[in-house]
């Protein structure tokens, strides 16, 4: 019954899109929620939440809480929408994120004080280090120290990440580095250079927010992993590094 309801809603949203303006979600993220929702509704699934917002022309975004099954929606203008970290929530926005969205003041921790504990909006590098830069290993190391992998999508995050890597990153070849969860899946498109780019684990392109192509180097299909250095730049690399590196995290 739930599957049929979802199919009906998807059909309805397609009819609305054809009859009005073909709105689609421009950004979908995990572990973030709307900071200023105007409507909250109990739903059966993410699909239903997605459909409810999509067919309402004044709805600019929605968040689905996987634990409570609540769908929070907002009709605020894109410049007024805020997004804040929250575990187990999927957020969908009908617009590209400008630097003002997610504008939170981030702080960094001193290397000696990086321990597990509740400290929201803090960017840090792990005390633990690893040669394995796979997303799964990075996630495990962040969780072990009370955080989660950092996706750098705002200028505030970038500034804080650069500061903490400069202070606490691993020195190598005249600079300092930390692992980053941006990955290149270009091996699926070997013959198309335009598809050789880095994405965050939530599927968004790294260059959709604060980074330009000039901030990223070594984007090759055979280099799936990435690191972040003290100069605020991203470098593509092998999943296995020459030296052990810490991981950039957020808590």
UniProtKB/TrEMBL annotation:
Residues 1-22 form the signal peptide. Residues 27-80 form the Apple domain. It comes from the Eukaryota. Keywords: Signal. Gene3D superfamilies: Hepatocyte Growth Factor (3.50.4.10). Pfam families: PAN_1 (PF00024). This is Uncharacterized protein LOC108678974. It comes from Hyalella azteca. The gene is LOC108678974.
């Amino acid at each position: 019954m739930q599957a049929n309801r979802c199919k009906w809603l998807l059909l309805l949203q397609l009819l609305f899109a054809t009859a009005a303006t073909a709105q689609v979600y421009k950004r979908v993220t995990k572990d973030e929620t709307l900071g200023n929702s105007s409507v909250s509704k109990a739903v059966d699934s993410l699909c239903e939440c997605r459909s409810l917002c999509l067919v309402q022309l004044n709805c600019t975004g929605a968040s689905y809480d996987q634990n409570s099954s609540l769908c929070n929606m907002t009709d605020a203008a894109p410049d007024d929408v805020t997004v804040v970290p929250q575990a187990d929530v999927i957020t969908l926005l009908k617009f590209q994120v400008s630097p003002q969205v997610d504008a939170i003041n981030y702080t960094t921790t001193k290397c000696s004080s990086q321990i597990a504990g509740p400290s929201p909006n803090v960017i840090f590098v792990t005390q633990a280090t690893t040669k394995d830069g796979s997303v799964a290993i990075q996630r495990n190391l962040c969780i072990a120290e009370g955080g989660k992998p950092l996706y750098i999508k705002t200028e505030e995050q970038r500034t804080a990440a650069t500061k903490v890597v400069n202070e606490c990153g691993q020195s190598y070849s005249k600079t300092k580095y930390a692992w980053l969860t941006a990955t290149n899946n270009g091996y699926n498109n070997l013959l198309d250079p335009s598809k050789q780019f880095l994405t965050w684990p939530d599927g968004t392109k790294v260059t959709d927010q604060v980074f330009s192509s000039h901030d990223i180097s070594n984007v090759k299909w055979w280099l799936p992993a990435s690191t972040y250095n003290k100069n605020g730049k991203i470098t593509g690399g092998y999943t296995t590094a020459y030296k052990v590196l810490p991981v950039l995290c957020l808590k």
